[in-house]
Structures are given as structure tokens and as C-alpha cells.
Amino acid sequence: MNMGIVKIICLLLWSSSLALGQQNSNVFDVTTFGARGNGTTLDSKAIQSAVNACSEKGGTVFFPPGKYLTGSIVLASNVDLYIPRGAVILGSTELKDYQECVPQLKSYNDAFLRHSLFYAEGKENISIRGEGTIDGQGSAFKVTTTKKPDRYRNRPYVIRFVQCKNVRIENVTLQNSAMWMQQYLACEDLFIRGIKVFNHANKNNDMIDIDGCKNVVMSDCIGDSDDDAITLKSTSPHITENVVITNCIVSSHCNAIKTGTESTGGFRNISISNIIVKPSAADLVITGQRNGISGITLATVDGGILEGITISNIRIDGPQVPIFLRLGNRARKHIESAPTPNVGVFRNVKITDVLATNVGSIGCSISGIPNNYVEDISLSNIKILFAAGRRLDSESGTNADATKEMPENEDHYPEGTGWGMLPAYGFYIRHVKGISLNNIELKYQGKDVRPALVADDVEEMNVSEFRAQVDSSALSLILLKNVNDVVVQSSKALSPVQTFVAVHGKSSAIALIANDTRNAKQVFHSEVPHGVKTEANLR
After folding, report:
1. Cβ within 8 Å of residue 135, ≥6 positions away
2. What is the pTM for the complete model shown?
3. What distance in Å separates the CA atoms of residue 413 and residue 292, rounded to the nearest whole number?
4. DSSP secondary structure code for residue 19 in this structure
5. Cα(456)–Cα(486) distance, rounded to whole angstroms?
6. Which of 55, 144, 207, 528 has the most CB atoms less than 10 A away?
């Protein structure tokens, strides 16, 4: 097809998209500013000239079909980049073509992340749209050291927007960043829809980082990343809040859904729903594990608050750990001059309607630290099938695993695999106050002699309709240690077990009500003779 006709068709498609509420009708064609679009000529100056001209009146910078090699482009307010199908933006493989940009807002990243393909700071009404492709060509940027911060330096983002308002990223394909694919730092009114991300070109290849942003909607996206996929951070005092993420398909060699690698400000009022987590299409693992580390990780370890989080309708296939919730105390400063953070707050989290299969045998954990509880957690309608032999060392679920002493590791990086095999194959819950588990079904393949549920230093726990497979040589279906005010009701062992509930340590106010205990040789074994009440349990 004649390239002139293709250009006319693309312009018509672009003009029709204006009905969706985008920028006005001022069009700035990058080729009229000198862009060659041949994939070899550096088009940075021409593209920047088009952006600068567009910013004076507001409008759209248009890329006709072609390949545009470019270094840094700095966006201005009221600029809409439209990249249609057939147009490809190629990031330069030479660092000299990228500008150094250190934001006025101080964050943990300032010391080492200074280059971006598309950068904006303090701008309004900016967008990147179209069905074209942005390729960072990130494999050209080599990591030459393991020392921090040098191992992060000199690798550009594809997109970095800082303290911008009314931002839209729609329908584009983003691939092969040298670093994180896209970071939105302290932005407000951020809309991300219909994008496709493939990021396996280098280390630290996150799919997306929403960092201290407010009022965010992300929907209908597909992503496959070597590092974390849907990533919520707080690398500055700004809280990530009022966030809706829905209808996405993601894959990661690390964590598919994650908060809290950095948590200076924290996370509040976040809804994540209708997500499919599946194994990556990339066989080469740079970071993490082939089928992923975790499906859902919620953590706060550098101070900050995590509250008001709802996660629902999640399908998880493959990673080692389906669910990992962690309050820690790494206490890392976001900048050197900041005070050392206090222990954060982790409360009011609801996770419902999760189906996980082909996951590793480590187990799920929900853990605070001594004298600092994770609070008010609700898990419901969750079904997990743990795969055989999917542990970090040898066979699954041994007696040594079931009886191991768990270190606190409160200052460690928050990773679901950090403790290795947990004392429970299903859920290990420690330093938690106020938790309910309702309609939970747990099964495993192979042999595993650990209990399905272990609670240690837990107060106000309600377990109902809990159904779990357990090995006949396991000591109990449920193990309670140092707990207070616990109710287990309407629950069942799905296979023969020695004891339905075992109680150890300084425990009190435990009630077993209307459970089906027919597969257990005894209803309970307790070191606290008068601390357990049983009522209407089926024998």
C-alpha cells in the first residue's frame, strides 16, 4: 500500500479517536519537523521540536508509520502523543542520547535512576496513545556491577512522569526497557487502559510502577515481565491512594501483584479485581523464578501505612507463593537526610474469590512482627492446589519443616520465599490481630506432613468452612500456638489426621463449634486443659 495512503488512513483513525475526549484538533506531524522514521537516523531533535510546537497551542504529536530512533523526549502540558499501528518508537542504545533528569520531588530513586525515553515533570493533560509500539531496546545497556547504587545507574526507563496531572496511557505496546518500563511518581488522575507490556530485556524489568500516585484507574492491560508486574510503590512521602486496577492478564518471574518494596508514604484505598496471573512466555529468567515468586504480595517494611485494600476475583497459575502479607521493619530511609522510619501500619485488607493452582509448596504467610500486629484481615472464598515437589530445595513438607523455628527477619527484603518452607503448607499466620478465614479449601499433590493452618501469636481469629487435605502422619489439621479468642467452626479435614486442632503455648478462649471431625482420631490435643471449648462437633 502507498505510504501516503497509509498516512491518510492513520490520520482518519486518529481524528475519530477525538470523540473519546482527547486533545483538540491541532496536529503536529513529526515528519514535517524533520523526523526520518527510517530506524537509523536519530530523530530526537525533530520529535522534541514537534512536542515544543504542540505545547504552545495544545494538540497531538503524530507519528506516521515508520521506525523512529530517539533519545530522551521531554513532554509538556497539553501534549498528546499519538502512535498508530505501524509506527515504532525505538529507544537509542547510546546513553549520550538521554538527558539526565533528577526530579525536584526527592525519592529513593534519585541517586541512580536519571534517564528516561519519555519524561515529564509537573505537567498536565499529557497522553501517549495509539496501537503502535515503543521499544526501549534495553538489552543494549549492560549491568556491570552488583554494587548499589551503581547496578541501577545508566539504564533508562521508557516512561517516567513525576507530579503530573491528568495523564493517559492507552492501547500502546511497550517492550524491552533497560530498567522499569514505566514509573508514575506522585501523579494525580492517572488513567492507563489497554496497554500491552513485554519486559524481559534486562534486570529490574517491572511491568509498571505506580508510585505515590493519587486517583488511578488501570484496566484491560496485558503484561509479561521478568521483574514485578503490577507494582505499587511509595518511594517518597506521597501515599499511593485511591487506585482501581481491573481486568488485566499478567505474568512475572517475580511478583504478579505487589505493594511495598518501598513504603515510605504507604498505600490506602486500593481495589484490585478480575486479574489472571499466568506463567510467563519467556523461558530466560534474569531475576526470580520461571513460574514466578508470588501471585499476591502486600507488604509495608519502610514505615508508611497499608490500609483499605480489597482484592477479588483472582486466578493464579504457577508462582511459588499464592498469597504473602507482610508487615516488616527494614526501616530504609527514602533519602539520606530523612529520619529513620517507624514501624508501619498494616490493617483492613480483604482478599476474596481466589483460585490458585500449580503453585509451589512453600505455603502462604500473613505476618507482622512482635508487638506490631497485622490487623483486621479477611480471607474468603479461596481455593488452592499446591503442586508436588515445587519447593526451593528437595521434597515437599517434611517433619523438620513442620517443627522449624521461624526467625522474625523483620529487617529483610519482603519476599514470599524468604523463609523457605513454612511450618504450614497452607497458611502460616503470626503476629496478627483480628483475622477471619471463611470458605477456604486447601489441597496438595505428593506428600506433605505439615498442618494446613498454623497460627502463632494471633488474637481474635475466626475460622469457618475451612476444608483441607492433610497427611495421615501430620500431627494436626490446625495448630494454634500462643493464641487468644479463636473460633473454629463448620470446618473439616478432607483426609484422615491424628488431631483436628492442636493447641500449644499460652493460649486461651478457643472454641470448636459444629465441625466435622470424623476424619480426626481426636478433636483436639491441648497443653491448656481448660482453654478449649467444644460444641456440636460431628464425630
Report:
1. 88, 89, 90, 91, 175, 176
2. 0.94
3. 17
4. G
5. 12
6. 207
Q: 459, 493, 479, 510: which is closest to 403 by C-alpha?
A: 479
Contact indicator for 401, 342 with CB cutoff of 8 Å: no
Mean pLDDT (10-residue bins), the chain, 539 residues: 51 47 72 98 98 96 98 98 98 97 91 90 98 98 84 92 98 98 98 98 97 98 98 97 98 97 96 98 96 98 97 98 98 93 97 97 97 98 84 68 94 96 97 98 94 98 97 93 97 96 94 96 82 83
What local confidence, expressed as pLDDT, does residue 533 receive?
Answer: 85
For residue 267, give the nearest of 257, 253, 252, 277 by alpha carbon: 257
| Euclidean distance between CA atoms 93 and 215, whole angstroms | 34
**Can you read off the three cell numbers belonging to residue 57?**
497551542
Question: Which residue is it, cell 517443627?
Answer: 403
Reported as type and span, the H/E element at residue 14 is helix 3-17
Give the whole-angstrom CA distance, residue 218 versus residue 228.
16
Q: Which amino acid is at 34?
A: G
- Sign of the Cα pseudo-torsion (77, 213, 315, 352, in order): negative
Write out 166-216 in H/E/C secondary structure: EEEEECCEEECCCCCCEEEECCEEEEEECCEEEECCCCCCCCEEEECCEEE
User: pLDDT value at position 536?
Assistant: 79
**How high is the pLDDT of residue 23?**
42
User: CA–CA distance from 21 to each of 14, 125, 194, 465 (Å)?
Assistant: 12, 12, 16, 49
Q: Rounded to 5 degrees, what are φ and ψ at 142?
A: -85, 145
β-strands 266-277, 230-234: how paired? unpaired
Give the whole-angstrom CA distance, residue 162 versus residue 123.
8
> For residue 12, what pLDDT is reported?
52
CA distances from 4 to 1, 9, 47 (A): 9, 9, 20
In whole angstroms, give the CA distance from residue 257 to residue 270. Answer: 12
pLDDT tens column, 21-38:
344 469 999 999 999 999
C-alpha–C-alpha distance, residues 330 and 328, integer Å: 6
- Rounded distance, CA 358 to CA 444, Å? 9
DSSP-derived secondary structure for 69-120: EES-EE--TTEEEE--TTEEEEE-S-GGGS-----SS--TTTTT---EEEEE
The pLDDT value recorded for residue 151 is 81
Residue 375 and residue 433 in contact, taking contact as beta carbons nearer than 8 Å:
yes
